[in-house]
Amino acid sequence: MIISTVRLALRNLGRNVRRTLLSVVGSGIGCAIAVTLTGWLPRRDDKLRLVDGPAALQRVRAMPGVRVAAPRARMQGLLAMGTRVAGVELTGVDPVAEPRALRFVRDAVKGRYLQASDGDAVRVDASLGAHASAEVVGVAGANLDGCAIAGRLRGYVGPVDAEIVGGWRARDGFVGATASGSVGGAEVHGELAALFLPEPWRWGGALADDKVILKAVAGAWYNFDVGDGLRLVGEYHYSGFGVTFPVSALDLAADRALRMRLNRGDTQILGRHMLAVVVNHPLMLTLSAAVQGLCDPTDGSGVVAPTLVWDLAENASLVAGGYAGWGAAPRRLCAAQPIGRHAARGADPAACVRPTQPRRRRRTTSDCGGTRVQQATRSTASSHGSTRRARAR
User: Fold this and answer.
1) 3-state helix/strand/coil string of 49-66
2) Which residue of 140, 164, 185, 295 has the smallest Cβ count within 10 Å?
3) pLDDT cut 70: percent of the chain above it
């Protein structure tokens, strides 16, 4: 039996000599590669691998004639979902050195390249049909305040585009919805969001809960056929992070929580309500004018800012503008005492006093039924207002 098998094998090898030689050569090359890799991987020869990557990078950058050295880290793997498998290659780059080494990174036409301040993030989206899509974004920061995960469900029907979002950012949870569309030639939009804070907000919250903050935006814009086009934009902004009564700028600057919300972009206004109007009109090809106005509907105060922009070149512009405000100044200044949550809900805090005014006396005389009457009025500024005393002599 064995002799018959060997005889049959030799007969098959001799029938096609070319195929036999190719098989022998292929097997030999494969064995050589396997032996080489098996001896290289466990040994980790310093001549083939970088033991200290940062130190080697510094030595390369210090070499004469080297203008830039950009390190990279690559990893290959497989992504599987159900029965579908796809190969991927992940590349890690230095966001500072990479733009200096690659021209196409510096000459990006749209968007921007990675920056050193960007955190680690991942984005996954999926199409749910011809008019809907879903998206999930995760960001990992150095600590909990720099982490976020959010999901968005988006869809449109005709001229109406709507979104529903929700997730967690830093230590806050949030849900919201947006919608935009075209109505009679004008573009309208609206936004509504609720944030759930880990701690009660100093100036009170919404829905009888100091940990719930509401934000809303409603606006529209329309282009008038005047000259080269006159655009009018109007918007109403509500922010539950704002204060409900006038305070001094010192109090707002001393509030660490409010500063953090402003710097992070959680709120854009210091009060609760704000109306905004912007009018933009191009006067010439390189010259345009705009007028911006802000108004607080609670007390009628506001500011108007005209602006003139002259484009001198592709990357240079000359901007001139000014500001003019109206409305009464805040009567209560609370720089001495902290502001409590009861004050935020409308109560007059004891710490808030009116600015002290200098004393003044005024004497007048009049005839009342033949009797000379002299009145003396003394005005003093206090937290209870002015007091008046009159006496007849």
Assistant:
1) CCCCHHHHHHHHHCCCCC
2) 185
3) 77
